[in-house]
Every structure is written in C-alpha cells, then in structure tokens.
C-alpha cells in the first residue's frame, strides 16, 4: 500500500507554455501533499505544502503565481508551471503524507522530468 | 534552524565492502530520522527510519542508530552490492507529518 503516482513522467515544452503535473495517492487519502524540486546531483528543495481544500503554503523564494498548486481532493494535487522558461527545467517530485501510517510518513512519487526549450 | 549534514560524495566501493555514510543533524526538539534512497531517474524510497533516541532502523541489510548524544544517524551496510548504487538522503521530520528536512545526498557507486 501507500503508492503515489505522478503524471506525466517526462514532459518537454516550449518556452512560454504552461505545464500541469499531477500527483495522486492511489490507495490512501492524503490530507497533505508536498512538492519538491531537484536539480541535477542536488538535494530536494521543498517548494510548497499543499493541504486539501485550502491554499498551499509556499516556501520562501518560491513564486506562487509561477507555480500554481491545487489540492482539490484527498487523492490529487496538481502543480502547474505557468509561462515556463528554460530555467524551470528540473525534476519535480511530490510526496503525500499518510495519516494512517506511523508518524504520518511521507510517500514519494516517481518524479516528473520537465524540460523547457 | 533544523538541518541535516551528510558526508560528501561520491563514495565508490567494491562489491562486498563495508559501507558507512555519515549523517548528523541539528534540531531543537526530538525529530524522527529517515534514510531515503533514490535510484537514477526515480523518486525517493524510504529505506529505514528511527523515531526516538537509541532506536535502530534496519532494512535490506542497511541499518542506522539514532544517537541523540552525538546527534547522528549514520547509515551502515556490512556488504554492499552493485544494485545498491544510488543516492542516499538522510532526513528529519521535526513535527510529525510536517516538512522533511533533507541532507544534501550522498552518491554511492559500487563496482563489481
């Protein structure tokens, strides 16, 4: 149990377009989901914390108008990169907190590789 | 603030060698500690965890002990395999269900 999926796994887009990434908890209800960004050979940088039915909490330095997060249901959160530019190219990873597991353990999705041309 | 520091990589070992990846943390309270593993092109998988001082987490031959006196959570494995090649992240959660704070990651490469 406790599987988190992401879609798409890879996306290539032109500069100026918007890209939506979905994060789903497949077999549990996640009240909280997290979005991370990872640059090559670097650690994960938390971008925002998303709670179902409320506005996301963004980390300092993350543009909320650039990275739109929606957590409309207990199993789905979406990250939309608006007006993408080449510097937005990165590996985006989501995680979901399972309130039924010990210590609200987080389960990670497989990641989405975004390339902006 | 809370933070996690890992030993620099990459770490290159021969198959069946002993592995240690150091991890130390600073925290104002009593966090839970985790080791995650990331295989190339994939997301993170939980490898093991410990939720209080002196707990030992173990999985797939890996183990780590939560040492409050030295604020450490070093990862060890007695005999590594080529399939263990990956990036390993140490992390803490200070508030249960809250934000994970990651170390910078340590790349492990195991040669046959």
How does this model look, in words?
Chain A has 117 residues and is mostly beta strands. Chain A contains no helices and eleven strands. In chain A, the strands form two sheets. In chain A, strands 2, 4, 5, 6, 9, 10 and 11 form a seven-stranded mixed sheet that branches. A four-stranded antiparallel sheet of chain A has the order 1-3-8-7, with no helix packed on it. In chain A, strand 7 and strand 8 form a beta hairpin. Chain A starts with a strand and ends with a strand. Chain B has no helices and twelve strands. Chain B is globular, with a radius of gyration of 13 Å. Chain B has 112 residues and is an all-beta fold. Chain A binds chain B through residues 4, 6, 32, 34, 41-44, 46, 49, 93, 95, 97, 99, 102-111, 113, and chain B through 32, 36, 41-46, 49, 51, 89, 93, 96-100, 102-105, 107.
Entry summary:
With 117 residues, chain A is mostly beta strands.
Beta-strand proportion of chain A:
over 45%
Q: Spans of chain A with pLDDT under 50 lasting ≥5 residues?
A: none
How is the main sheet of chain B built?
6 strands, mixed
Biggest interface pair, residues each? A-B, 25 and 22 residues
Helix content of chain A: under 10%
Overall average pLDDT of chain A? 91
How many DSSP H or I helices of chain B? 0
The largest β sheet of chain A comes out as: 7 strands, mixed
Question: How far apart are the first and last residues' alpha carbons of chain A, in Å?
Answer: 37 Å
Structural class of chain A: mainly beta
C-alpha Rg of chain B (nearest Å): 13 Å
Count of strand segments of chain B: 12
Computed Rg of chain A: 13 Å
Beta-strand level of the residues of chain B, as a percent range?
over 45%
Unreliable sequence segments of chain B: none
Tell the overall outline of chain A: globular
> How confident overall, as mean pLDDT of chain B?
92
Secondary-structure element order of chain B, as H and E? EEEEEEEEEEEE
């Amino acid at each position: 149990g406790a599987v988190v999926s992401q879609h798409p796994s890879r996306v290539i887009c032109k500069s100026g377009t918007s890209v939506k990434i979905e994060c789903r908890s497949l077999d549990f209800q996640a009240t909280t989901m997290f979005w991370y960004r990872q640059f090559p050979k670097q650690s994960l940088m938390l971008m925002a914390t998303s709670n179902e039915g409320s506005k996301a909490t963004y980390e300092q330095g993350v543009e909320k108008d650039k990275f739109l997060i929606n957590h409309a249901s207990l199993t789905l959160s979406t990250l939309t990169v608006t007006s993408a530019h080449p510097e937005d190219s990165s590996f985006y990873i989501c995680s979901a907190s399972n309130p039924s597991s010990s210590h609200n353990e987080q389960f990670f999705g497989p990641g989405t590789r975004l390339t902006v041309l | 603030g809370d933070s996690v520091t890992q030993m620099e990589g990459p770490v290159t070992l021969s198959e069946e060698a002993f592995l240690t990846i150091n991890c130390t943390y600073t925290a104002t309270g009593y966090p839970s500690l985790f080791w995650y593993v990331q295989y190339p092109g994939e997301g993170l998988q939980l490898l093991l965890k410990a939720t209080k001082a002196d707990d030992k987490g173990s999985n797939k031959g890996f183990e780590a002990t939560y040492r409050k006196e030295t604020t450490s959570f070093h990862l060890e494995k007695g005999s590594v395999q080529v399939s263990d090649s990956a990036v390993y992240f140490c992390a803490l959660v200070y508030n249960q269900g809250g934000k994970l704070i990651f170390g910078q990651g340590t790349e492990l490469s195991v040669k046959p």
